[in-house]
Amino acid sequence: MVARVNTVAFQGIEVLGIDVQVQMSGGIVAFTVVGLPDKAVGESRERVRASLHALGLALPAKRITVNLAPADVLKEGSHFDLPIALALLTVMGVLPDVEMARYVALGELALDGALTPVAGVLPAAIDALAQDRGLICPAACGGEAAWAGPGLDVLAPANLLALINHFKGSQVLTPPKPRLQEEEARPLDLRDVKGNETAKRALEVAAAGSHNLLMIGPPGSGKSMLAARLPGLLPPLDPAEALEVSMIHSVGGLLEGGKLLRQRPYRAPHQSASLPALVGGGSRAKPGEISLAHQGVLFLDELPEFPRPLLEALRQPLETGKAVVSRANHHVTYPARVQLVAAMNPCRCGHLDDASLACARAPKCAADYQSKISGPLFDRIDLHIDVPAVSPADLSLPPPAEGSAEIAARVAVARALQAERYAALGGGRATLRTNAEADGELLERVAAPDASGRALLTEAAERMKLSARGYHRVMRVARTLADLDGAEGVRRRHIAEALSYRRIAPGR
Predict the structure, then answer these.
(1) pLDDT for residue 508
(2) How distant, in Å, are the alpha carbons of 155, 181, 252, 275 from that of 140?
């Protein structure tokens, strides 16, 4: 007899169906797992054996062969423990094979038979619902699986014994309920930032259109404070975005307690981060920081301190909204539609504009330091602003009257205008949500300035030596400024303000 149990493997956030087949036969006593398993899957033999022993069951003295089909797909991860154990229990006659065919199972087994959380439950649940099957997963992941839809039959036992009793009819497992992550008790507020009104305005524009932002200023001028308060200006994730972002975090094993995200992610990797950590990769091709920040903010502090190859690897994801991890036998693609926010000092010492504090190599040190950022990467950043040091007089002032809540309200109105505009235009661009994503003919339709604005943009492009990419990014920012004003079209004043946020590439 051959018992079969359905499970899954992952390529990015894509789900591949895996058929776990178990056969018991005569011959030399052995327990073999075939089908291109990695080390974690191979070690499942001992975890499964110990879990069955904890239930008072012993494996028969037979030759046991476990085949993970299709055999040419690499099987990675510990979530194969549960389907292998269920297939063994089926072939031993403990569980009914008809019931097993109705479910997709994944979970890691502890030595005492308990089920521990695994990554990828949310995409597995969505795939199971599409195939009209149920899902068996650990209790800690039940809230995550329940978000796949009300029609999904989810069994989320705490241990293997509870699952067996459920199928035997001596115990009923309660369906799990969807859970959301709790909001912060006190979110960061822009009222905490004194002075730097120009930088606050640029932050509002960046939030309204999801534009990339670069802040240049001396140490202590408030660049990191401003960046940390950007998520408080962004609207919460809508249901489709929340599901997409949570799927990436689920595959990465970062959904705490199986709770879906409701706030836009904010990721701030250190300069010592490796290329796989930032873009994605590693032995299991996991999502990197740029994918974990999908539909949110990726903050890179002290941008020139990041290794040059790592910064250059960001160019393609910033342009396409996708991070591609290439392997010899397959390619994994993760969504990476992020809003890049970067901060840097004007030079290595950071005090270029203060002769009393600047080093002896100024201004040459500034050119050397800023030239670490390549022209193509600099060109992909929409807004470039100087953040001067805050004076003691500003620090002694009371908190500003306008905080994150007031600015977030204006941002929400501008984003609603953009969503309505692009939904009406349609044309196969249903996923387009913000001005930062508009390009080509669509950008010309929605962001074409009036005659005086066009003349100003053309003249500025010639004098500032703007590339075609820079030209179009000015148009996108101008469209966002018009949305914040509630204007139908882009005017000369919008072009002028958008150009004020554009500067010549540093060191050139």
Answers:
(1) 46
(2) 11, 14, 16, 31
Task: State the CB neighbour count (10 A cutoff) for residue 461.
Answer: 17
| Residues sharing a CB contact under 8 Å with residue 206, sequence separation 6 or more, in sequence order | 212, 213, 230, 339, 341, 382, 383
> Can you read off the two tokens belonging to residue 127?
């795939």
Q: Tokens 């101008």 identify what position?
A: 478
Output phi, psi for 348, to 5 deg.
-65, -45
10 by DSSP, 3-state: which? Answer: strand
d(CA 133, CA 166): 17
Give the integer Cα–Cα distance in Å for 263 and 232.
9
Asked whether 199 and 216 are in contact (CB, 8 A), the reply is no
Amino acid symbol at 505: A
**Residue 486's CB: how many other CB atoms inside 10 A?**
10
What would the two tokens of residue 318 be?
């910033």
- Tokens 């950071």 belong to 350
- Provide the token pair at 136: 């068996």
Neighbours of 223 (CB within 10 A): 26
Residue that is written with structure tokens 């056969």 in the block: 23
> Which amino acid is present at 260?
L
Identify the segments of the chain with pLDDT beneath 70: 184-186, 328-329, 350, 354-358, 360-362, 427-430, 504-508
415: Cα within 13 Å, side-chain hemisphere: 21
**What is the Rg, in whole angstroms, of the alpha carbon atoms belonging to the chain?**
27
Q: What is the pTM of this model?
A: 0.89
CA dist 174 → 142, 162, 171, 249, 457 (Å): 10, 11, 10, 26, 63
Residue with tokens 């191979």: 42
Structural contact between residues 265 and 236, judged by C-beta atoms closer than 8 angstroms: no
Return the amino acid letter for 256. Answer: E
Tokens of 442: 């669509």
d(CA 284, CA 10): 9
> Any idea what the Cα angle at residue 299 is, between residues 293 and 304, rounded to 5°?
130
- Residue 480 half-sphere exposure toward CB, CA atoms < 13 A: 34
Element (H, E) at 465: none
Which residue type sits at 452? S
Q: How many helices (H) and strands (E) does the chain have?
A: 22, 18
* Token pair recorded at residue 204: 């509002």
Return d(Cα 403, Cα 391) in angstroms, integer: 20
**Residues 6 or more apart in contact with residue 351 via CB below 8 angstroms:** 218, 219, 357, 358, 359
**Backbone phi and psi for residue 46, each to the nearest 5 degrees, phi listed first:** -70, -35
Q: What is the DSSP letter of 75?
A: B
CA 33 to chain CA centroid, nearest Å: 34
* Residue carrying structure tokens 């179009």: 472
CA 283 to chain centre: 19
Q: What is the pLDDT of residues 182-241, one digit of tens each?
A: 776 667 899 888 888 899 999 999 999 999 999 999 988 899 999 999 999 999 998 889
- The confidence score (pLDDT) of residue 279 equals 92
